[in-house]
Amino acid sequence: MDGEEIRLFITIFRIKTRYLSRYFNIIYTSLKMALQEFRSNKLRTFLSLLGITFGIFCIISVLATINSMKTAVQNDIKTLGTNTVFIDKWEYRNDNNYPWWRYYKRPTPKYEELKQLKDRVPIIQNATYMTQDQSVFEYGNDMLNGTNYYGVTEDFAKIEHFNVGYGRYLQQTDFDQAANSLVIGYNVAEKIFVNPEIAIGKTVRLKGGKPAIVIGVIEKQGQSMLDMWQYDDCIIMPYKFLKQIIRDEDAQPKIIVEGKEDVSIPALKDELDGAMRSIHKLSPSQEDDYSLNDIESFSKFMDSIFSNINIGGWAIAALSLIVGMFGVANIMFVTVRERTAQIGLKKALGAKKSTIVSEFLLESSFLCIIGGLFGMIAVFVLAGVFSSMFSFKVFIPMDIIGLAVGICLFVGIIAGIIPAVIAARLDPVVAIRSTN
């Protein structure tokens, strides 16, 4: 590099440095003016920014809460099995407004149908028959009401996801012999035995005084959004043993089917639909007397609910932001009037219109960011409260915070554009002669 190129490089560097210094000076001046406005007129500025604060609060709180709920629900759905279909007489969603009494008249799934389905549908990976009830759990003089009874067949633990913390799970001999063996939830063990580990081997009494032996305790699951099976508060036993306590017809029976990994839910449902119609001997003109409920449809249903809540939150936030925008615009109009002489002096000294516009737009944007900051603080406080109250943790992703800052900047620019243009068009001589 020769001397001429070095001098050219130094000249370009100085010009760029001068421009950067100018822009940083504009930003610094605008921020200082915004803070000065807030300090000198606290009540007026606070009331004007209240709409921005509430709008940002609504946006962040709704988006963060819905995002946290969706994450919690998706995690819960994974525990139910994403490639799973529940065969029941009840439709879990009932999108077609089917009369409830027609569901009630349907036959309940039969245990014998489980083997027929396995024989007729080769794409089934696992399938289990399940019945359930709710009754007492007694040990000595202690009794626990409202305990969930689950009677299951062999594949239940292959479809559902939980771990046994103490003891063991049901074995094939327990299912074959209809053994009075129980795997109980952590809360059940803790409430009755205090120390869950000592529950293993204890003989307890169930509904009607039926004796049973505890062979395992499920690891503590904690609360969840769906909490469909409530493993912490249940007892799991062989289906044939629960059948000795309660009839299948009164035990909400269902067949849970899991397809092979490469099989889609629609393909699995098509195969199950054909098999169930054949098993029930339904003619082509007869309607289904069973329901195929899949987890994916439920997940989409929950997504639509979350979307509607999001729309509501955005609508409230938009209204608040519009009110806040007018408040900030009012502050900027007052600011232009108060600084008329100062603006005239700047223009007389050579300040360009773009510089004046930039200063006022940045100042209005900083005011909106200050209002949004109060909203963000309120959301973080609320997130901590909600996390302690709800069964899921409310977290605020950085992209939502970035969105909030972007909205503040956008609202600030819209609110300040007219006052900024008015300030830039002031005649320097007239402006200098004016008084505040």
Features:
ten-stranded mixed sheet, alpha+beta, 15% strand, 2 domains, single chain
- Tell me the domain tally: 2
Straight-line distance between termini: 57 Å
Strand fraction: 15-25%
Q: Ranges with pLDDT <50 over ≥5 residues?
A: none
Alpha plus pi helix count: 14
Largest sheet data = 10 strands, mixed
Average pLDDT works out at 82
Structure in words:
The chain is α+β, with helices and mostly antiparallel strands and 436 residues long. It has 2 domains: 26-75 and 301-433, no CATH class; 107-289, no CATH class. It is 58% helix and 15% strand. The protein contains 14 helices and 10 strands. Strands 1, 2, 3, 4, 5, 6, 7, 8, 9 and 10 form a 10-stranded mixed sheet that branches. Helix 1 packs across helix 2, helix 2 (42-80) packs antiparallel against helix 13 (398-424) and helix 10 crosses helix 12 (353-389). The chain is elongated, with a radius of gyration of 34 Å. The model has no long low-confidence stretch (mean pLDDT 82).
